[in-house]
Amino acid sequence: MSVVSAESEPLALVFEDDGLVPNNPMPFLVYKGAIAVDGRHPEKTIEGLFGANGWGDMWRNGVYDYLHYHATVHEALGVARGHARVRFGGDRGREFEISAGDVAILPAGTGHQCLSASHDFSVVGAYPPGAKMQITRPTPDNHAKALKTIPQVALPKTDPVFGAGGPLVRLWR
User: Fold this and answer.
1) Cβ pair 110, 76 in contact under 8 A
2) What is the C-alpha separation between 106 and 148, in angstroms, rounded?
3) 111 and which of 21, 28, 87, 145 could share a cystine (Cβ 3.0–4.6 Å)?
4) C-alpha distance across the termini of the chain, in Å
5) What global pTM score does this model have?
6) 25-82, pLDDT tens digit by residue?
7) DSSP single-letter state for residue 112
8) In this structure, are residues 106 and 68 in contact, taking their beta carbons and an 8 Å threshold?
9) CB–CB of 95/86 below 8 Å?
10) Would you call 26 helix, strand, or coil by DSSP?
11) DSSP conformation class of 19
């Protein structure tokens, strides 16, 4: 039995550089209800899917409640339990309600911050092969450095949800 819902196009948005959060010209992606997480171990379900599609260096937690981004790596966030309101794209970005089964995929430089969350909110984060994740806060100096590192981040070979033939591979060319 597949843990992935029928393949569909993700919501794809490009956030503009706001002078502190660089964001990325590649689109931020959100798959709503992409993963069946109704079992007893939803974190393991997401970890298995992400790992099978070549995304690793995983962690379990929530989303930090302060604005930050990753200038050296792309990130997938799979919601295992609960729900949260998260702002993506920095202070001038957009707020999303994400819930169990949703997956957000952030190209390097995409700002994100949890604004509120249910008590049971649980996320599995993962990264494609390459550089290690570093948390970057929005400052003028960090922004200038990020504008140099973000273009050097390799494109993932696979979509963390749908694999080599997934929408990310086509949308992030």
Assistant:
1) no
2) 18
3) 21
4) 31
5) 0.96
6) 999 999 999 999 988 899 999 999 999 999 999 999 999 999 999 999 999 999 999 9
7) E
8) no
9) yes
10) coil
11) S
